[in-house]
Design a protein that fits this description.
Strand order of the largest sheet of chain A: 2-1-5-3-4
Order of helices and strands of chain B: EHEHEEEHHHHHHEEHEEEEEEEHHH
CATH class of the largest domain in chain A: Alpha Beta
Structural class of chain B: alpha+beta
Strand content of chain B: 25-35%
Number of strands of chain A: 5
Oligomer: heterodimer
Number of domains of chain A: 2
Protein name (chain A): 4-hydroxybenzoyl-CoA reductase subunit gamma
Largest sheet of chain B: 5 strands, antiparallel
GO molecular function, one term (chain B): oxidoreductase activity
GO molecular function (chain A): 2 iron, 2 sulfur cluster binding; metal ion binding; oxidoreductase activity
Pathway (chain A): Alkaloid degradation; nicotine degradation
Keywords (chain A): 2Fe-2S, Iron, Iron-sulfur, Metal-binding, Oxidoreductase
Shape of chain B: globular
């Protein structure tokens, strides 16, 4: 099939690429942009590991075609913080044992970043609903809950 | 890359989209938010030669209050529906159904037109559209038409839409007066497809009787269902005399093909369905009586 030219801004940098229409945004980020922090678990919209921000909204990058992101602004886990300058959510996940094997963590951190931006002072029930779109197969949810509570406190 | 190859079209107007769909026939599929279609492509449950993306057509978005109705463009996202104060006031059931749809990441992409055209029997918006007698506006090379929701859902993932027809908008009536609205569903985890669910809208007359009511059922057949017989038995009854559990059981009486799978047998689903109707009825009645 004919490749299509797309232009996006990924973590603030302009990116231009030629892609097959069937390429997902997740594969585009990983294989074309070499941003492998966006993880792929299920590849059909169940696990949330590939969550990124698309024009500021948290979405599953495996359920967006790269061609649909033409003209959009994308933020991946790499765009949220640096190893020596973690974002408040990343900091809270580290401090509160919010990760075990780490595979699901990029998706959780991106989801939680969007969730707390829109719900700065959530109840525990709201946090659980906000986390429901991400699966942690180590089942380390209590640490994640603590991390989200702490991140909510640290970002007034 | 998991989907089979396809050509991609991104029309910027509805006219262009209709022409593309007519040109490519049944080898083409329209792409709305993609939250059901893209997984089906990834699993190769669906294969198309052409995808026509409706996401760049501004005329499909937005909502408009027109007297006793509210019209939502088919491309309005679940997130936009759920956060709209106008929708919450005009069609409370739509607002209250929204948090049950998937997760917030799904709701940021999924659209009301996509959900209704996809016609999953366990989905929330189709059940609300059916129960509230929404009108579905479509366009095809033969022009525009309006399909009543009662005629729209013909089977699992199957609708009255022709192969070359696009759903453009959904119009809901606004219920006024002393009315109450509630949705209840049981799912194994939040955001999963419901084992069974129910929506209730009811309106009281000046004497505290049920003036009218609408009971929608989801996950209990090959399409969303409406419990018209149960509605008829309680309409005209004093609200205080209505036995909610009885309404639930009567609502299950209309069901002909209750699904059975590893999440529950047909009998189990009927029991859950009756309980969901009863709970939704009680909450809607409380709201109608006490605000």
């Amino acid at each position: 099939m004919d490749e299509i030219e797309i232009e996006t801004r990924v973590n603030g940098l302009a990116r231009r690429g030629r892609v097959e229409p069937r390429l997902t945004l997740a594969d585009y980020l990983r294989e074309h942009c070499h941003l492998t922090g966006t993880h792929l678990g299920c590849e059909h919209g169940v696990c949330g590991a590939c969550t990124v921000l698309l024009d500021g909204a948290a979405v599953r990058a495996c359920l967006v075609l790269a061609v649909q992101a033409d003209g959009a602004e994308v933020t991946t886990i790499e765009g949220l913080g640096e190893p020596d300058a973690l974002s408040p959510v990343q900091e809270a996940f580290r401090d509160h044992h919010g990760l075990q094997c780490g595979f699901c963590t990029p998706g959780f951190v991106v989801s939680v970043t969007a969730f707390l931006r829109d719900n700065p002072d959530p109840s525990d029930d709201e946090i659980r609903a906000g986390l429901s779109g991400n699966i942690c197969r180590c089942t380390g949810y209590q640490g994640i809950m603590k991390a989200v509570r702490a991140a909510a406190r640290s970002t007034p | 890359m998991k989907p089979a190859p396809f050509a991609y079209h991104a029309p910027s107007s509805l006219d262009e989209a209709v022409a593309l769909l007519a040109e490519h026939g049944d080898g083409a599929k329209v792409l709305a938010g993609g939250q059901s279609l893209v997984p089906m492509l990834a699993l190769r449950l669906a294969v198309f030669d052409h995808l026509i993306d409706l996401g760049r057509i501004p005329e499909l978005r937005g909502l408009e209050r027109r007297g006793g109705t509210i019209r939502l463009g088919a491309g309005t996202t679940h997130a936009a529906v759920g956060s709209s104060a106008e929708v919450a006031e005009a069609v409370p059931l739509l607002s209250r159904a929204t948090p049950f749809i998937g997760h917030f990441q799904i709701r940021n992409r999924g659209t009301i037109g996509g959900a209704i055209a996809h016609a999953d029997p366990a989905a929330e918006y189709p059940a609300v559209a059916l129960a509230l007698e929404a009108e579905l506006e479509t366009v095809s090379p033969r022009g525009q038409r309006t399909i009543p929701a009662a005629d729209f859902f013909t089977g699992t993932w199957t609708t009255a839409l022709a192969d070359d027809e696009i759903l453009t908008g959904v119009t809901f009536p606004v219920w006024g007066g002393r009315s109450g609205h509630a949705i209840e569903e049981l799912a194994r985890r939040h955001g999963d497809f419901a084992v069974a669910g129910a929506t209730v809208a009811l309106e009281l007359d000046d004497d505290g009787r049920v003036g009218r009511c609408a009971i929608g059922l989801l996950g209990l057949g090959s399409t969303p269902e409406r419990a018209t017989a149960a509605e008829a038995t309680v309409t005209g009854t004093a609200i205080a005399d209505v036995d909610a559990q009885g309404v639930g059981e009567a609502a299950m009486a209309v069901l002909r093909s209750v699904p059975a799978d590893l999440h529950g047998s047909a009998d189990y689903r009927r029991r859950v369905g009756a309980a969901m109707v009863a709970r939704a009825w009680r909450r809607a009645a409380q709201e109608a009586l006490h605000g």
